[in-house]
## 1
Amino acid sequence: MSKIKSICGFAAAAAFASVALAAPALAYDGTNCKEPGVCWEPKPGYPAKDKIVGSKYDPKHDPKEVNKQSESIKAMEERNRKRAENYAKTGKFQYDVKKIGAN
């Protein structure tokens, strides 16, 4: 019984290896690359960079939405600064910034 399991396991491994080795042949060959690894091409009908503004492809990003992450990072850095100052003073780490001011 164990010989049958080992033969089946070997056959499955061999089949997987043959598929894994054949996969790179199916990959994009890079015939229209500007340089190695830069093979992106727009779909037909996609406008040039200078004509995107005002077209249906214009993302129309709201500045408030774009700045949300930078605002949250600034707030995080401020909390971490308060935690570090409190640790330097007391020698104990306090995660909750609200409790730091209460001491």
## 2
Amino acid sequence: MTRPPTAAQRRVIDAADPVTGRLKGTEAQLAALVKRGLAFRHPRPPHDHFLTPAGHRIREAVEPAAAEPAARAPAAADGVFAARVGGEETPPDAGPARLREVRGAWQGLLELRRMTRRDGATDRPCDWERTHLVQAAALALEAAGNRPAGPEGRGYRVRATPQPEAVAVYEPDGTALRACAATLERAGWQVGEHTEPRTNSRYLLASPRRT
């Protein structure tokens, strides 16, 4: 069994950027995390360190989040950014501050894609997105201007599914549903439109594209 990180290493992991996983710490701390497979040193200057998927799992174990199918608030009490998945109890905030947060989170995610690919491509989801499917899809939708559902029920809702690497996107307005599909396709997701047998309502099934 892998030995858990030390208290000092946990503090470095906890302080990582919530979207990109960029780390700050002493050279000794960062080297120790790399040795344990919890971080990697990017080969290109400025040679920053980032959490690996294993490091992200450690971070989430330290700061447990709600299950993906449940709706989350736009930001946790500690100020960590969270994309709106739709269906939150409070009305969606579309003010300038929220728009800046979403734009910054999306740019950070694109940077994470670039930094974790040999070719520096940003057209396909990265490992972090594959382990945070609901949040990743919701961020792509919100960043493109699609409106998450509020208490009144209008807008998109992103939910986990039993299928591996797939989320469902619900939107009562057909035109808005097609706009969500186009957004996710541009963000590097494979999207198919389906019909719910019991309700006859349309929804999207989206998965991160690999090639």
## 3
Amino acid sequence: MKLIASILLIFSVSACTVKPPCPIIDKHTSQRLDALIEQQVIPSQDKPTGEKIAAISQAFLGTPYQADTLIGTDSVPEQLVVNFNGVDCFTLLDYVAALSHASSRNDFFTQLRLTRYHQGQVSFTQRKHFFSDWFSLTPLNARDITDQLNTPTIKVTKQLNLKADGGRYLSGLPVTQRIINYIPANNINKATLNALQTGDYVGIYTPLAGLDVSHTGIIIKKGQQVWLRNASSLKKNNKVVDTPLLSYIKTRPGIVVARPL
């Protein structure tokens, strides 16, 4: 019922001028997209990638946290959803990354396809469900730089999508073996912080079987402070916020870092 209600609340743009499938986008998001293109994307085109990501993601600060905004399962056809009314930690990265490469409204839809889906094919099985998909599946959104940050790392072999009890997190999706590099939280030091750059994408490593990270965000450096810009589901936030990285990570296992291409 929740999925049906979500579909009823959004509609496709009436005049689709982009490569099929046409995006599903509501009026408010459509207007906000046009404003972002004009006020954030176009003015920042000559800036370094990290600064572009910082400027674009800043426009999402305060956006409500909302999970399950995408449409598609192993039994429901995948749709190219654009929804700026509410984002989760992963769709925030989707939209920011796509906008950072876009040159126009229609190009944003193309870039979102390439960002969210392996080979740009809009289907549930081709969606980049895991953070490490961003630097493992083409077209690559970023490169894994976790072991290049002057900090000792740990390598773990994961069977992504395979639960400890043998079940699957996502029905219809295969199990993928992948080596995950992460920096343990207690190894993060001044050298780590200095090596991070504004615009880097961060995944919060999880030891749970079948998953690579439990949360994602964007590194924002302001003076001597390093922030994690993220769509927070915490009750005290429930929106996109900037959180001091060190205070956030001190109770977490560690981080995986990817640098945008």
